[in-house]
Automatic annotation (TrEMBL):
InterPro entries: HAD-like_sf, HAD_sf
GO molecular function terms attached to this record: magnesium ion binding; phosphatase activity
Source taxon at top rank: Archaea
Electron transport among keywords: no
Protein name: HAD-superfamily hydrolase, subfamily IIB
Ranges that cross the membrane: none
GO CC aspect terms: cytosol
Annotated SUPFAM superfamilies: HAD-like
UniProt keyword terms in alphabetical order: Hydrolase
Pfam family, one: Hydrolase_3
Length: 228
């Protein structure tokens, strides 16, 4: 794998607008670039697999998925590797008794911001024996997740599982949850709509927003570096 490039893109706010499907023109361009240049394309997201399957119309263009903030790694061979600590299913069972879920993944338990106070109270009263974090993962969504997990951890897991550890990484993001990816990357890119703190950490800041930035990065940066 030495010398190959991996482009790792966040989903919401990066590859697409939040809670929206990828624009057809972006998918068409990505398909064209995949046929033209030697790189692997990875999506890193807080979402579970079912959500991404709905939002990305040509999922076969993706070489791997880092899901649920790094708790799950999925590969196109129908391999799904789940990372959860001992006793995590018990934590989810406790939450189901008292905290309404807006979504559930293989590992993460998602709650709407309207239920955040309830979630925090239940956590204080009933989850003291568990190692967990309760973090914001969307504009209105919070999630219970194993302590210490982030997208950078998920990327490390992916590289170990696939043997892609010698690859050169380009990461593209818009929010602070993408900064752990930046720490693992050779090239760090912020989309035009990214938060200021992300732009400050980036090597490159696109003028373009969302998926238009992603395809430009692949076309200009990966192509140039692959053949330099």
């Amino acid at each position: 794998m030495s010398g190959e490039w991996i482009v790792v893109s966040d989903y919401d706010g990066t590859l697409a607008e939040e809670n929206r499907e990828v624009e057809p023109r972006v998918l068409e361009k990505l398909e064209e670039l995949k046929a033209k240049y030697p790189f692997k394309f990875v999506i890193a997201t807080a979402r579970p697999l079912e959500d991404i399957s709905r939002f990305v119309g040509k999922l076969w263009l993706v070489d791997a998925l880092i899901l649920e903030v790094g708790s799950v790694v999925a590969l196109p061979e129908a391999l799904e590797v789940i990372f959860k600590p001992w006793g995590w299913d018990r934590l989810r069972a406790v939450l189901r008794e008292s905290v309404p879920a807006v979504n559930e993944g293989r590992v993460l338990y998602y709650v709407d911001e309207e239920e955040l106070q309830v979630a925090e109270r239940v956590a204080r009263e009933k989850l003291g024996a568990f190692g967990y974090d309760l973090a914001k993962v969307g504009s209105r969504t919070y999630a219970f997740m194993p302590r210490g997990i982030d997208k950078g951890v998920g990327l490390e897991r992916l590289l170990k599982l696939t043997g892609w550890s010698d690859a050169m990484i380009v990461s593209i993001g818009d929010s602070r949850t993408d900064l752990p990816l930046f720490q693992k990357s050779k090239v760090k890119v912020a989309v035009g709509n990214a938060a200021r703190e992300v732009k400050e950490k980036a090597d490159i800041v696109c003028e373009e927003k969302y998926g238009d930035c992603v395809v430009r990065v692949i076309e200009e940066i990966v192509n140039r570096m692959s053949y330099s």
